[in-house]
Amino acid sequence: MLIAIFADIHANRQAFSACLAQARNHGAKRIVLLGDYVGYGADPEWTVTTVMDLVDKGAAAVLGNHDSAVSNPREQLNLEAQVVIEWTRGELGASQRQFLAGLPLTLNDSDRLYVHAEASNPKSWIYVASTAEAARSLADTPAHVTFCGHIHQPALYSMSATAKMTAFTPTTDVAIQLLQGRRWLAVLGSVGQPRDGNPAASYVMLDTEKRELTYCRAPYDVEQAAAQIRKNGLPTWLADRLFVGK
Amino acid sequence: MVKPLLQPGSILDGFRIEEAVHIGGMATLWRVSRPGTAMPMLMKVPKFGEGADPAAIVGFEMEQMILPRLSGIHVPKFVAAGDFAVQPYIVMECVAGKTLLPRLPDLPLPYAEVADIGVRIAMALDDLHRQHVIHLDVKPSNIMIRSTGEAVLIDFGLSHHDQLPDLLQEEFHLPYGTAPYMSPEQLLGIRNDPRSDLFALGVLLYFFSTGVRPFGESETLRGMRRRLWRDPVPPRRLRPDYPAWLQEIVLRCLESEPAWRYPTAAQLAFNLSNPSAVKLTRRSERMKQDPLTTVLRRRFNKDLTRSIAKPALAAQLSSAPIVAVAIDLMEGSASINDALRITAERILATLPSARLACLNVLKQSRIAIDFTLDEHGHNKQVDRLVALKHWAEPLKLEDTSLTVHVIEAVDTAAAILEFAHLNHVDHILIGARQSSLLRKLLGSVSAQVAAEATCTVTVVRPSHIEEEKPSSGDYPAPKESVA
What we know:
CATH superfamily of the largest domain in chain B: Transferase(Phosphotransferase) domain 1
Number of domains of chain B: 3
Strand content of chain B: 15-25%
CATH architecture of chain A: 4-Layer Sandwich
Structural class of chain A: alpha/beta
Low-confidence stretches of chain A: none
Oligomer: heterodimer
Structural class of chain B: alpha/beta
CATH topology of the largest domain in chain B: Transferase(Phosphotransferase), domain 1
Distance between the termini of chain A: 33 Å
Number of helices of chain A: 8
Largest sheet of chain B: 6 strands, antiparallel
Shape of chain A: globular
Largest sheet of chain A: 6 strands, mixed
Helix content of chain A: 25-40%
Distance between the termini of chain B: 57 Å
Radius of gyration of chain B: 26 Å
Shape of chain B: globular
Number of domains of chain A: 1
């Protein structure tokens, strides 16, 4: 089965639509969403409604720190993000806020674990930025493959049977076999706010039969997404950064 | 889970185990068969468990990742891989024949045979590098020659794939490879330079042509590191009749600095198969190793012993293409040849490591006997070589990046295509035939080349306005169409 996995959509309707269309074109049969549906972007209402609809049809979804911040004022965010979350609260209806508040921190599916940030302590929203955090995450969970997002930069870590770590920056569209003899941590790039220098939306496709993981990129209408951010009076840097993928 | 018992006659995932053909420290190789598959197959089963070398496990994992992605005649065909949780294995084509290892008692081999083996291995390496893989363990026991003549590279346990995680990179701090063949940069832990394979091939060529290993057999890190600053004894010192062109090639492969070696395996293959076109430098004449002062300077030069970031494999290969220019030397081709030269100049301006091969086809008639001399007694071959060099002269190329070739053939297009195929040419430049009457009668050579070539073909035409003028010093702007 082909599973399409998306992280950090951040209310970017244009980017998420482009990813969904491309993934369905490639034959995705199941959808997994790794959190941060809102924040930064200008279409939270459409995005959360779309996510709710996908979950209704069988998609799996976990909670991100921005989603948590919608109903939890104690969640720490940077200043720009805080401004957008306050605006987002007014954009979302009660059922949407309720949906976000009810999302789980982690989900297990067969030998896979879905989580927004580092998995040993998912509530602390720790970035997986190096082999050190990847090792901690893998050591603490039994899953063969862990999928997370949060950092907006794609990376693939593996741990050998002797607990040695490897790190790798994936090449777009090249399928990587997730060997069974070691355990893997796939860090996804962001759908709605890529920060790896490539403005195209980032997501992954997993072929469960072949055990192959492919990092994909979907180009989308950045101008439109940026215009929406400006139109709603959100910080302009959040619009500008979409053009450069930073 | 209970591990299935592996012994002759047992069945694993539909494969029938026949016999053990090799029992090594890291893996056992079984001959296997499967109903409906005629191809002879081998099953590689790694030795895991207590006391197993962790490198053996990682090497097996690398091979499991890389082999299914490879294709073509220069690698064993991948068939299947076993579930790690039950019984890890890889089933692949059993290549008929032997490795080059049994040839060692025959060394040194005749020079022509060494060059011939070298061309085959370099072609195989070029094919592998184009598939994003650096072998990193090129040695006689990892090379087989098919009955059809192609070299096959086996054992990808130490290989690096440019687009896949390198499981060996961070696992071990010691360099992995085979001591006598390992390149200096490999000793420093660099695993992403395709020219490391050219160094190993240089060691093999030196060994096969002299019977002596250029850097000895020391397996200690200290002994191996000597090659960072100590150059090998020139082969001519060991065999006085050693051809200068072969010494040039072998010593260039063995340069400690990768940038001084051939930029690609295809360019190395090209030189090995065209000895007369090898540009001889001081390397070819050397009788002695570098003086001690030079060696000491290298020994304590930190620049040589630090690791340098390398560009991606694909980028490096595409920056050093072989470009073949087909040049018509008939009367009235001057304007088109000028246009070809401008196009070639543009390519060379952006890709300084490119290599230009200028071709002219000396047409032979199908029936009549052809004479080497023309009606005035000039040697046609020599005249044309001179004309080709004259064409290339304004490009001011170094001899190492230019070769000229006159090919005798009945069919011009077929001869160009064959040259391109045999020499792994990346790009053909060819002019469109001018005379419409001739074109009607003979058909278009450029159209056939563009249609049938396996590489990029640029068909060049001079602009119409410039065509009217007699072509001289002013270059007309060429029109290009890329097929």
